[in-house]
């Protein structure tokens, strides 16, 4: 269809052509829509307020305490502990942090989803030769980056409303020396579970610092990075289902379009592909090892500093098992599912390592990924220990 239709008296011919050219232009990128839609859920005042200065001082004091204890752990390099830097942000700030730190993964995800959409079917009442039908079909394909970007951004924004720390999903960041916490969400969690705030602050600091140190080990990080990239490369989007919903919305309802874009079920699909299922078995091993390390280090430091830690550990465990929909969906996009199975296996693995006093075997696996447990060895830790110590 030409840019203009000679002799046409229908203004929609021009409108559809202009809209299609705009959406199909190189200036329209999924990353732009991700950035815009990620900020919508955290635009309310409580998500944008500055960190209280007195609370900031408290966090900095506890951060130094945690560093002193992490230096003495035999699982992580003490030289890496000293390089950690504390950064406190509000939920709005966490969006900016993750957009920057996950930039590579987000770009791969947006590109994969934008390229994988199938052509939009023509409406029943339009003939296949109809010029408008041709424009509508092209319009659906051109809107793919916008739809994918809007959904990714919306899920990310809603996730940041409740996340207490940047590495909660254990997705590697570009920077490996950051300890990023969200005091607003930490205080909210402590209040909801009636826990001592100082203890929750310290517990969360140790969890974030330990995750950063584990992901800062180059060999382990590279191993995990390959697994995530394999998952992202095989993502598929069902944009056709989204376009069907777009046809049904009331154009006079300003919230209708946002509600459509906020529903990511078509984006992530109902099931993993066969390739993703195979890869996820390996991702699950990686997640179990990270969670196991968190358990061992957190329990040791909590015992030394405030003795009883059961209430905090149980509350944290329940929070993760009962994860919010945005957390579950965001994790699913990146192949990360910190499920009840992962959490229970990690707890059992941590108990096993502590009872057998084989922390050096876990440290060896962190440095040399070939010694990580296999999916089968997660069912029998003794097989893993025998192989590592052989």
From TrEMBL:
Output one GO MF annotation. Answer: hydrolase activity
TM helices/strands, residue ranges: none
SUPFAM superfamilies named among the record's database cross-references: Metalloproteases ('zincins'), catalytic domain
Pfam families assigned:
Zincin_2
Which key words are in the record?
Hydrolase
InterPro entries xrefs: Zinicin_2, Zinicin_2_N
Q: Which PANTHER family match?
A: HYDROLASE (PTHR39420:SF2), PTHR39420
State what protein this is by name.
Putative hydrolase
């Amino acid at each position: 269809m030409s840019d203009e239709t000679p002799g046409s008296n229908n203004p929609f011919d021009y409108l559809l052509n202009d809209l299609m050219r705009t959406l199909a232009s190189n200036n329209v990128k999924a990353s732009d829509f991700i950035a815009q839609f990620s900020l919508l859920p955290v635009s309310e005042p409580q998500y944008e307020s500055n960190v209280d200065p007195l609370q900031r001082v408290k966090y900095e004091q506890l951060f130094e305490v945690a560093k002193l204890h992490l230096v003495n752990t035999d699982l992580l390099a003490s030289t890496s502990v000293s390089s950690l830097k504390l950064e406190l942000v509000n939920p709005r700030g966490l969006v900016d942090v993750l957009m920057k730190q996950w930039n590579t993964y987000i770009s791969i995800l947006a590109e994969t989803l934008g390229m994988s959409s199938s052509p939009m079917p023509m409406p029943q009442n339009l003939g296949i030769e109809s010029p408008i039908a041709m424009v509508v079909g092209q319009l659906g394909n051109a809107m793919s980056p916008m739809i994918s970007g809007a959904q990714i951004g919306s899920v990310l924004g809603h996730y940041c409303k409740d996340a207490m720390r940047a590495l909660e999903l254990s997705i590697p960041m570009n920077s490996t020396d950051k300890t990023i916490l969200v005091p607003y969400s930490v205080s909210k969690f402590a209040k909801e579970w009636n826990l001592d705030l100082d203890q929750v602050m310290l517990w969360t600091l140790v969890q974030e610092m330990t995750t950063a140190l584990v992901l800062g080990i180059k060999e382990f990080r590279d191993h995990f990075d390959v697994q995530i990239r394999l998952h992202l490369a095989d993502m598929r989007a069902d944009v056709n289902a989204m376009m069907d919903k777009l046809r049904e919305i009331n154009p006079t309802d300003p919230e209708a379009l946002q509600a459509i874009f906020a529903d990511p079920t078509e984006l992530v699909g109902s099931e993993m592909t066969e390739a993703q299922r195979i890869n996820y078995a390996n991702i699950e091993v990686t997640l179990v090892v990270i969670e196991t390390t968190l358990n061992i280090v957190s329990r040791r430091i909590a015992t030394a500093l405030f003795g009883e830690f059961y209430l905090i550990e149980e509350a944290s465990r329940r929070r993760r098992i009962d994860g919010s929909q945005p957390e579950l969906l965001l994790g699913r996009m990146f192949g990360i599912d910190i499920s009840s199975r992962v959490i229970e296996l990690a707890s059992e693995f941590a108990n096993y390592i502590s009872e057998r006093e084989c922390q050096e075997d876990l440290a060896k696996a962190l440095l040399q990924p070939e010694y990580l447990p296999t999916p089968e060895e997660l069912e029998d830790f003794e097989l893993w220990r025998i192989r590592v110590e052989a």
